[in-house]
Amino acid sequence: MDTTAFITGGVGFLIAIGLAFLYQRVSTNNAKNKSDMILKDAARDAENRIKEAELTIKEKNLTSKEKMENEFNKTRNDLREQERELDKQQNSLTQASQDLKKQESFVEQTQNRLTAKLESSIVREKELSDILERQRQQLHQITGLSVEDAEKRLLEITEDHLSREVGGRILKHEKMLEETCEQKSREMLLMTMQRFAATYTSETTTSTVDIPNDEMKGRIIGREGRNIRAFEKETGIDVIIDDTPGVVIVSGFDPVRREIARQSLDKLISDGRIHPSRIEEVVAEARKEMEKFIRAKGKEAVQELNLHRVHDRVVEYLGRLHFRTSYSQNVLAHSKEVAFLSGMIAEMIGLDADLARRCGLLHDIGKAVDHERDGGHPQIGAEILKQFNENKDVVHAALGHHDQIVIEHPYTVIVATADACSASRPGARRESLERYIKRMEELETIAREFKGVKQAFAIQAGRELRVMVGAKDSDDATAANICRKIAQEFEKRLQYPGEIKVTVIRESRFMEIAK
Question: Is the pLDDT of residue 154 over 80?
């Protein structure tokens, strides 16, 4: 049993050895075959690379050869082109040389002809001088005038003739210039007015305040009228309470105070607490709000017109113009329109448009306080602008835009023109004809009430009154007294912005008829 196992183990071992040897031999043969194949592939790859390198070298040689041939051809063509250009230049020089020789020959011939003509002209000039001398001597013998007298007489005749001709031409050109200027000015004004247009709101000297019921009227009046008295004292405005249902009227000539009163009354009615202390508190609050609103309106106008370095007080006066009306025309809107029109006109005639806009915006600044100061708004406005160191053109525009002084600055003329355009264009002033006529009649009627007044005429939309008195019925002292009394009567019986100028005219007329 053990022997059999041993033998079996030995046989297995021998078989294992034989198999290992056989595997090694087979592996060796496979490796040899693989190495042979690798060597063959390497040799084949090397041969291919050598062929590719040879082909690449041949291609590069061909490319270089072709490039060199192209450069050679290009150089040869350039040389040929330069040769042709040189041939052309040589031909041009030859032709120019031939032309120059021809011109020299022509100039020489011309010079010879001119020399001959010059000699001929000298001979003729000498002959003419001799003829003129003989004629001069003959004229002297005929007229008996010396040479100096004859020259003087001839110059006088020529001067007289020329002066008449020049005068006629000047008149003709002046007429043409006048017609052209008039036409151009019309076109400029029409174009300017078309480029700018604005709307207006009609305002009066009264404001209405709505109330919820008629019981509120009693509360506004208060016990024994203490509320209404306190309100009128605090605001400086009259409160009119009548039988008209649902409204209370706030009346006053100062538009800013009237607006403060209207806002205060609205707040008191909404709040419901109406008594003197509350009235004082509400009015003070409304006055502060109004000051802020006025400053904002003034700054808005200045910024809209792109103006700079405007004094704060002037800005405040501008804001007050928002509540000022002239013949139902809002003065701030009117001032802005005048500013825009002035700037456009100045641009068209070559002046400073910014300065013209400044003059136009501030020309009516006096209307902001004309109810507080004596004098008309032009004088008041000029004083205000001078006080705050405004430009002299701006001051003069405010003072002279109504043609009451001698106009010395062109911007004053521009502002006066723009002011007239703004006030007269359709829709600017909405005052009814009846109201206008009534105001004029009031002025004239008051003036005619005085003894010695024969005629009275209201002019400049009621800003001035001309009164005619008889020379036989009155003397200078009487005329002065009538003038003063008429002005005092206007102050007592009428309400008006600014001032009314009263002029009394007394004259003596003598007439004779020659037969």
Answer: no
Q: One-letter amino acid identity for 155?
A: L
- What is the token pair recorded at 236? 């400086």
Token representation of residue 252: 């006053």
What share of the chain has pLDDT > 70, as a percent?
83
> How confident is the model over 376-413, as pLDDT tens digits?
787 888 888 888 888 888 888 888 777 665 566 788 88
Dist CA 126 CA 119 (whole Å): 11
Four-residue CA torsion sign, 165, 171, 173, 174: positive
In terms of Cα–Cα distance, which of 108, 82, 88 is closest to 96? 88
- The pLDDT confidence band at residue 203, using thresholds 50, 70 and 90, is very low
Hey, CA dihedral for 252, 258, 262, 268, is it positive or negative?
A: negative
In total, the chain counts a number of residues equal to 515
Position 455 pLDDT exceeds 60:
yes
Pull the structure tokens for residue 507.
């004259």
pLDDT greater than 80 at residue 429: no
What integer is the mean pLDDT of 34-51?
Answer: 83
CA distance to 182, 215, 337, 388, per residue, from 409 (Å): 20, 61, 21, 20
Tell me the residue ranges of DSSP E strands in 301-377.
325-326, 329-330
Q: What are phi and psi of 357, to 5 degrees?
A: -65, -40
> Residue 188, Cα to own-chain centre: how many angstroms?
14
Closest Cα to residue 357, out of 164, 482, 196? Answer: 196
**What ranges do the domains of the chain cover?**
305-431, 433-507
Residue 193, classed as helix, strand or coil, is: helix
The two tokens of residue 91 are 């031909």
Collapsed DSSP state (helix, strand, coil) of residue 79: helix
Q: Which CATH superfamily is domain 433-507 in?
A: Cation efflux protein, cytoplasmic domain (3.30.70.1350)
Tens-place pLDDT, residues 481-515: 888 888 888 888 876 656 788 888 887 766 777 76
Q: In whole angstroms, what is the distance from residue 480 CA to residue 318 CA?
A: 38
What one-character-per-residue DSSP string does 346-409 give? HHHHTS-HHHHHHHHHHTTGGGGSTTTSSS-HHHHHHHHHHHTT--HHHHHHHHHTTS-S----
Residue 58, CB-side half-sphere exposure with 13 Å CA sphere: 6
SS3 sequence, 195-247? HCCCCCCCCCCEEEEECCCCHHHHHHHCHHHHHHHHHHHHHCCEEECCCCCCE
CA angle 255, 258, 262 (to 5 degrees): 140
Interatomic CA distance for residues 443 and 26, integer angstroms: 147
Which run of H or E residues covers position 458? strand 453-459
* Superfamily of chain region 305-431: Hypothetical protein af1432 (1.10.3210.10)
